[in-house]
Amino acid sequence: MSYKGFTLQYRTIGRVTAWAVFGLGILYAVTTVLGLLSLQSSQEPIGDPFFSIMELLTVLIAPLMVVSMVIVHTYAPSEMKVYSLTALIFMILLAGITSSVHFVILSVGHQITATGLAWVPLLISFKWPSVAYTLDILAWDWFFPLSMLCAAPVFRESRLEKILQILMIISGVLSLAGLIGVPLGDMQVRMIGVLGYAVVSPIVFLLLGMVFGLQPRR
């Protein structure tokens, strides 16, 4: 199995981006917890400044995840590149959808909401059902897990890679399970998916950075 194309430059970029996703993911989790603790009732949505910080972090994380998956594709041996390329395509779709949704809400969401028009919550709120919420579910509960599950076969050699592979599968399966909440119309069930992409995935990217930092096999 050859990794000749996986140069020092690729390894460096891979470590930086993967660990940046990990760090921002931890910051996102901390912000979410603080936002939840600030609520008077569990039925209330998280408000500012926590909500805006979460939106900004999502916009920052998405392109870094794409770059990390580019490095995964470079790292993959030739017989696994069909999986890594598919994983990259799914990650690009995720980034495009979620970045668009969160950038719109972050930049003009307050102005649109201030109009008081009856249709606004159905368009840009994160209360089910809404267009923005549905698109974000498509990104994180469909394209993200597909990317993780397609990338998992690439990592199968060392003990660290096998642990990474298992966590990718767990992250993907949990994220997919969140889709069950859509036909049920129950967003509490959809929280299963959040465990996959918000709790397990930062660990995935931490290990991914560690794998990229290892001396490539000859």
What does this structure look like?
The protein has one domain. The protein has eight helices and no strands. It starts with 7 loop residues before the first helix and ends in a 5-residue tail after the last helix. The model has no long low-confidence stretch (mean pLDDT 90).
What are its keywords?
single chain, mainly alpha, 8 helices
Terminal residue distance: 7 Å
The helix tally amounts to 8
Question: Which consecutive residue ranges, at least 5 long each, have pLDDT under 50?
Answer: none
Rounded to an integer in angstroms, the radius of gyration calculated over CA atoms is: 18 Å
Number of domains: 1
Global geometry: elongated
Q: Return the average pLDDT rounded to an integer.
A: 90
- Tell me the structural class: mainly alpha
